[in-house]
Structure formats: C-alpha cells, structure tokens
Amino acid sequence: MWELADRYQLFVGGEWKDAASGERFDVINPATEEVVATVPNAGPKDIQEAIDKAAAAQVAWAETVAAERGKILSRAAALMHERVEDLARVMTLEEGKPLAESRGEIAYAASFLEWFAEEGRRIYGDTIPSSSPNKRILVLKRPVGVTAAITPWNFPAAMITRKLGPALAAGCTMVIKPSELTPLSALEIAKILEEAGLPKGVVSVVVGTDAPAIGQEIMRDFRVRKVSFTGSTEVGKILMRQAADTMKKVSFELGGHAPFIVFGDADIDAAVENAVASKMRGMGETCVSANRIYVQRSVVEEFTAKMSERLGRMQVGNGLEEGITVGPLIEPAAVEKVDRHVQDAVAKGATIVLGGQRPAASKGYFYAPTVISGVNEKMLVMQEETFGPVAAIVPFDDEDEVIAKANNTRYGLAAYYFTRDIGRVFRLAEQLEYGILGANDGMPSTAQAPFGGVKESGLGREGSKYGIEEYVDIKYISLGGIQK
Ligand code: NAP
User: Looking at the annotation, which residues are catalytic?
Assistant: First the structure.
C-alpha cells in the first residue's frame, strides 16, 4: 500500500533534493485544514540549477529520435493509469476535488502524454518551389530549446501534462513550476517520468512560496526560450511584459468568464445536465466553467427549477468520502470571493434560489452549490470569473441580444450554447468571440482539440496537432548549386 511521502523533495536535474535554503513549507488539505505533507521551499537558486541542468540536457534530448521520446511518454502515461488510485488520492488531498473527479483528471492528464507520444512523429517540414532553378527551399522544424511551465492549482496534473507532452515530444527540455498550493501531484509526475526512463535533466519540478521571485528568475534567463503559463490574466500580463526582455516565445491559457446560452428550442434536460457538469466540475474553479447562464425567457423558469433541483441533490464534503460530489474550494480567499459575488448580486436585486452560504462544517473551505436568479449585467458575477459553485441565471429575449451580451467581456475562452436550430449553431460559432465553442456540449475539452482563448483569455493553443507548434521553431534551408 502506497503512503504519502512525509518528506517530499524537489526534482532538479534528475536528483531528489532539498531547497538550497533548507526551508520547507506545508501543503494544506482544503477539506480539513490539516497539513498533508511538507515540501522544500525553492527559490531563485534552485530554479537556476534546474535551468542549468535543462540547458545541459537539451542537445542530447533534441537528438533522440521522436519514436524514442514517444516511448518514454507512453510509458509515463501507462504508469499514470496504473497508479490512478494513488495519484487521485494525492490530488484530492491537496486540491479538494472529489475522488471521482481526480481519477478523471489523471486519465485526462495521461491522454496528453498519449496524444503527443504519437504527434511527435508527425513534426513534418515542407519543400517550397524556389524562384531560381539553381536552388531548393526546405523548411525544418526544430525544438525551441529549454522551456518552462508555470501551472495553476485547479488541475494539478493535467495543466502540467498538457505542456509537458508537446514539449518532450518536440525535443524540448522543461522546468516546471507548479502552484505552491498543489505541488504534490507535480512531484508524483516527476517520479513517474523518472521511472519511465526520462534522461536526467530533461525535466525538473521546482516549487516555492515566492512565485514572483521564481517567475522572475525564469523570465530573465535568456536560455529559457519558451514559457507556457496557465493561470490568471493578471499574472499572464506580468509574464508577457517580462518575456519581452529576452524575446521568449510564450503561450498563455488565462482566465475565462464563460457564457452558457440556452435557447427556447433546446433540449432543456440536456442543457441542465451539461450546465451542471460545466458549472460544478472542480467546484466551479475551472477556467471554462459556465459563469453567466443566459436562458431564453420562454424556458427560464423550467431551466432554473431543474438546475436548482440537480444542484440541491449534490453532496458537499470531504472529497475522499464515498458519495461526495462537491468538495471544498482551494483556500479561504476563494470562499470569500464567491460569497462577495453572491452578496453583491443580492444587494443589487438578485434572488437566491438555492444555497447562498457556507454550509455548516466545522473545518474546510466549503461553499454550498448556489443558484441565483434575477441577475443583471451590473452585478460582479456578470463581470468577473466567480471561480465557485454559483449558477447565475439571466433571462434573454433574442439571439442578437444574447450574442452581444456574451461578447461584452475582455475574456474569450469558452462559450456554450444549446439549440436545435442548425443554422443558429453556425451563426453563433462564427459570431461568439471565443476560442472554444460547446454547441450542445458542456464538456468540450479533449487532447485532440486545440484548447485556448482569444482576447484576454490567452495566446496559443494546447492539445491537438496545433499544440506541438508552440514548441518548435521554423527554419529553412535555401540550398544552392543544384544545376550541373
Ligand atoms: P495565478 O495566481 O495566476 O497562478 C498561476 C501560477 O502562477 C501559479 O503557479 C502561481 O504560483 C504562479 N504565479 C503567481 N504569481 C506569479 C508571478 N508574479 N510570477 C510568476 N508566477 C506567478 O492563478 P491561479 O489562481 O492559480 O489559477 C486560477 C486562474 O487560472 C483562473 O483565472 C483560471 O481561469 C486560470 N486557468 C486557466 C486555464 C486555461 O487553460 N485557460 C486553465 C486553468 C486555470 P503560486 O500558486 O505558488 O502563487
């Protein structure tokens, strides 16, 4: 039986080590407020060492053939499936999501390694007709070099493998900086990579409590040629400014504020089921979570009643326990933000149909599944990501009105809409300013699709054949002297 390692270490250049400072910090279980484990508190020195080791490993890793790199990724994915129970338990302990969701995330995380194990074999070049009979033009794609991943706590494994899979498949080395709130899943992935036979130095996992200092060290190092960040738009903007000094390649998966639109002609039961899935996955703490639920006036009463009935049946509690479907939020500040959104809506005239408060629990950062109706555009829930289990329902009258409202935000990650009108499916796909469109689908994320946002939700795509492009540089050879 596997046990939580009481003394986790950093994974730097293929070695398990303490932080240069010797300091450690606690990882807290958000369901019980107890310490789950302690982890070395890395700082700039540790990051520097990880980058040194990645730079030293880069050339040899890039020279490994794609099939060989793919085998290591496939072995790592297989180990993740084999250890799903242990990995899911670690995730639930540090992040709070119910075990069934953690198992789902481990499978989702492994799917990126599986997908890119194959995709790495298809980094094709081109030949281009030349304007001279004496020349030929050949396009090559080469790994960008040392890369870094900075990842959030809400998907402690999948946000890592979605970056790691394409980086390793393309022949890049990677330094990973997970969130200090969920470092254990990242360190478990490092163990798996080591066991899968990844050469030393190709991947390091370094985590500490001073994210701005660690981030700065990564951003100012010229040898890091690419940074992939998933997290808030606010931090994404800081990193984008910092990337300018060394002209790094960057990709950003940032905040969302997803509209979920239900037309009167939709299958209302399917719309409710999908709204529940989108809203409640990870307790609503996902970038693609339905945040603004627009329902056509003819069906708003039916939809609100059915949504409230479904959310009212959900079981809030410690995600390790059988039958729990809603875990805690990540930290006290998250509960405060959710409550502030609900109270603001009520003060501005909204009605609480369900929940609207912290459930009676002696410990843990819980918030009850909540439905509010009579919501308008002036309320905070309609202006910012709530990142919690609050379904804010707004009635609308016609298509043009709801498209304008849905687009009236600086975010552009995911949008959902439910309708049986095929013409409308295309009209909305074309007019909604979002990177991901769930047409009659509340769960569109999958390894083979190009995940990513427009506007202030980010730059670049992850997953799919496009995801690997973020980790290669395009070069060309102009070859002369062809004619006799
Ligand atoms: P966050 O505060 O931006 O943190 C994300 C990562 O950046 C963490 O590793 C964090 O470390 C680190 N960080 C914080 N400040 C930094 C700085 N100044 N320089 C360098 N790194 C820094 O976001 P979060 O609260 O963890 O995650 C929630 C956000 O992520 C939401 O906005 C959500 O929508 C977004 N998200 C987007 C996607 C997507 O694919 N578009 C997916 C998931 C989440 P510490 O945690 O240790 O402080």
Answer: 253, 287
Ligand 1: atom nearest CA of 177 is: 9
| Cβ of 467 below 6 Å from ligand 1 | no
- Cα of 235 to ligand 1 centre, how many Å? 7
**Ligand 1 pocket, 458 CB below 6 A?**
yes
472 lines ligand 1 (CB under 6 A): no
Beta-bridge mates of residue 316: 326
Does the residue 178 lie in any domain? yes
**15-17 and 35-40 strand pairing:** unpaired
Residue 356: partners with Cβ closer than 8 Å, 6 or more residues away = 342, 346, 368, 370, 372
Say how many Å lie between the CA of residue 300 and the centre of ligand 1.
Answer: 35
Nearest-angstrom CA–CA distance, 144 and 455: 25
Q: Do residues 142 and 286 both lie within one domain?
A: no
Residue 122 structural domain: 10-254+457-476
**Strand, coil or helix: 51:** helix
Cβ–Cβ under 8 Å, residues 66 and 74: no
| Ligand 1 and 255: CB distance under 6 A | yes
Q: Does the residue 5 lie in any domain?
A: no
Ligand 1 centroid–CA 302 distance in Å is: 37
User: What is the residue-level pLDDT of the chain in tens, covering all 484 positions?
Assistant: 456 666 799 999 999 999 999 999 999 999 999 999 999 999 999 999 999 999 999 999 999 999 999 999 999 999 999 999 999 999 999 999 999 999 999 999 999 999 999 999 999 999 999 999 999 999 999 999 999 999 999 999 999 999 999 999 999 999 999 999 999 999 999 999 999 999 999 999 999 999 999 999 999 999 999 999 999 999 999 999 999 999 999 999 999 999 999 999 999 999 999 999 999 999 999 999 999 999 999 999 999 999 999 999 999 999 999 999 999 999 999 999 999 999 999 999 999 999 999 998 779 999 999 999 999 999 999 999 999 999 999 999 999 999 999 999 999 999 999 999 999 999 999 999 999 999 999 999 999 999 999 999 999 999 999 999 999 999 999 999 999 9
Residue with CA nearest ligand 1 atom 39? 253
Domain co-membership, 287 together with 370: yes
Distance (Å) from CA 358 to ligand 1 centroid: 25
**Ligand 1 centre from 129 Cα, in Å?**
45
CATH classification at residue 237: 3.40.605.10
Residues 6+ apart with CB under 8 A from 467: 116, 119, 162, 165, 166, 450, 451, 461
Q: Does residue 307's CB lie within 6 angstroms of at least one atom of ligand 1?
A: no
* Ligand 1, atom 12: closest residue by C-alpha: 211
The reply to whether 186 and 265 lie within a common domain is: no
Asked whether residue 58 falls in the same domain as residue 185, the answer is: yes
**What angle separates helix 211-220 from helix 44-63, to the nearest 10 degrees?**
40
**Which CATH number covers residue 419?**
3.40.309.10
- Residue 283, domain member (yes or no): yes
Give me the amino acid identity at 312.
G
